[in-house]
Amino acid sequence: MKTNDEFWLYDLKVEVIGSDTPMVCDHQPGQYFLMQGENLIFGPNGKFPLYPLAALLPLLPARQRDTSEHDWMTTDTEIACPDPHCGGRFLITRTGKRKFTHSQTTGLPDYRGRAHWDPVLQGNNEND
Ligand SMILES: [Zn+2]
Questions:
Q1: What is the number of other CB atoms lying within 10 angstroms of the CB of residue 45?
Q2: Given the DSSP bridges, would you call strands 89-101 and 78-80 parallel, antiparallel or unpaired?
Q3: 5 C-alpha to center of ligand 1: Å?
Q4: How far apart are CA 112 and CA 104, in angstroms?
Q5: Three-class SS of residue 101?
Q6: What is the mean pLDDT of the chain?
Q7: 94 Cα: distance to centroid of ligand 1 (angstroms)
Q8: Quick check: helix, strand or coil at residue 70?
Q9: Cα of 52 to ligand 1 centre, how many Å?
Q10: Exposure of 17 by Cβ count < 10 A (0-12 exposed, 13-18 middle, 19+ buried)?
Q11: What letter would DSSP give residue 121?
């Protein structure tokens, strides 16, 4: 197994926060989901509305990676609900870092190794 092909991704928490405008979608303050590597882990009630999720998804892989302190992707952590009549806002927070390796995360034949989700490789992050 290669050991010099490591990279780190931030774990994320996406939480519903309110604003001065009432929310019309089925999301309430405190509702959240986590992102760890490629996985979404939904909070205690296990649901999250489709349309805000669809608007958030393109931002999440970029937010998982190191970005310049001057990049809006770093500074603008509050995202508006895509429904123009909804006051919902979503706060994206980096909660920790998780280590991966190229060989564990690619299916390219020349680089293929043991998958990162294999139980043998569990426990390779700063949060566990
Ligand atoms: Zn909404």
A1: 10
A2: antiparallel
A3: 40
A4: 7
A5: strand
A6: 89
A7: 22
A8: coil
A9: 6
A10: middle
A11: G
- State pLDDT tens for residues 49-103: 999 999 999 999 999 999 999 999 999 999 999 999 999 999 999 999 999 998 8
CA of 63 to the centre of ligand 1 (A): 21
| Tokens 């060989």, residue located | 103
Structure tokens at 9: 């991704």
Residue 18 φ/ψ region, left for φ over 0, alpha for ψ in the -120 to 50 degree band, beta for the rest: beta
Residue 101's nearest CA partner among 90, 89, 113, 83 is 113
Among candidate residues 60, 54, 39, 28, the one with its CA nearest the CA of residue 105: 39
In the predicted model, is pLDDT for residue 11 greater than 70? yes
Tokens of 99: 């280590």
